[in-house]
Amino acid sequence: MDKFVTKAFLANKALSLVPAKLSKKQVDVLVAKITEAGGKVVDVADADIVVAAKAPPSLGDHQSHVSVEWLQDCLAQKKLLPLPSRKRASSLTSAEAPMAKKAKATTGAITWAKAGSIIYCSNVIATPASNAPVKIAAFDMDSTLITTKSGKTFAVNDDDWKLWHESVPTKLRSLLDDDGYVLVVFSNQSGLSKGKVTEKGLKGKIEAIMTKLQLPLRFYLLPENDINRKPRTGAWDFMVQEYGWTVDMAASFYCGDAAGRPKGLDHPVATRNASAIATGKAKKDFSAGDYKFALNVGVSFQTPEQLFLGSKLSLHCDTSLRDLGFDPRSLLTDARAFEPEPASNPEMVVLVGSPAAGKSTFCATYFGTYARINQDTLKTPAKCKQACLERLEAGDSVVIDNTNRDTKSRKEWIELARKQVCNLAVAKAATVGVAVRCFYLDLPKPLVFHLNAFRALQKQLHPEAAEHKSDVPDMVIHGFFKNMVVPTVDEGFSSVVHVPFARLSNLDAAAAKLLTSFLL
Fold first, then answer.
1. What would the pLDDT profile of 424-465 be if each residue is shown by its tens digit?
2. What is the set of domains in the chain, with CATH numbers?
3. How far is CA 495 from CA 111, 349, 408, in A?
């Protein structure tokens, strides 16, 4: 048996399975799974150990049966050491037992893969059994695990990094070996999609960080503005599904620097950069994206200062000080039911609202029987007016589904309705007119930006659904609010109804969850 073990040592690609208290059937099952995964099993019969040479990391599901620590010690000392004790072997081979809490975590070769827009890698040999709850310690990368050597906000090249603080490796090792956590990193990397960094350079940087830390880590890089980009939870959901984990949500946490902390002048040592604690220059966080990610996932949150430095300052620990901006979590519960007054005669309804405010959804929900006049569909103002006239002449009600942000744009529709009244009066010798009501979707700008992100994500998730639209450029929304004139009855409307965010009854559970999550 020793010659096979020695050969495996030299290859540095071996896993040892200790079959103490395992039946032949259990050993056969393990051997079959190793073989299926591409590994090679040698000398099983009458062996004290089973050696699986070149077994890939995908065997993580079965690592509760693996004596990695013993094998690594043999490799490190370049000699065959005594086998683990029967007591130790029993703890390692129990089919129901998870990995020993304080077993030294080990690393293997770094492997890269891609799923959709997610670029991810791992150097993990042993992964928790899928039937055991997993405690996840998740981290942002920049300004959390590392910072720039240059002192600049953004790295000037792929080598411009250093550990955020000297305590980082020690704390991560403690979370692994003492507390039994799985270490995961989620990092937005829009610079990759914008061409500011290369995939090769970014991967090289990640591999250098993993080599420096010498810890089992999983990195998820998120370059696109899609469901995977934090604070959205697509990458987290993918990870959990990929490994089939049941996550211990109460024990798991996320750590990041984008915490929504205010300017810290009232906290003289509350700085963001661990290397400059004594300066007392605490700047406002650039966003609350990391804290929002933790809230979306449903785990607790810590700042780097809190986790790595043990800071007790309220600026670092008190979540009540955080500026989250628009909070969508109660969006559906706070939304009010809305029902417009029915019209007894044909009428014109003019909608007023920002792009992405939900005008088309409002139109379909409350005025589904009206002829919808929309310039995105008809392309030109002339075609819109012609279609409107034709439907009014046919005795139909119409709804003008455009932004109609100022008095000038709304005046054209009011005058068209009045002209139609004259035509009807001549034709029917009556004075029955076409009333014009205005419905103003009175939504604050932050809510509109949230709805804009929501509809873009819905389009990405369900590209086949015609009702989902792409997002509107930010400058278009800003332009609407800059030039918006609130409508009044003085313009010629029979009434102006201010509509707050109305309750949406046609959302499925997944869409409702997305709508009430932090998206920006």
1. 544 444 444 689 999 999 999 999 999 999 999 998 988 776
2. 2-93 (no CATH), 107-321 (3.40.50.1000), 336-515 (3.40.50.300)
3. 64, 10, 18
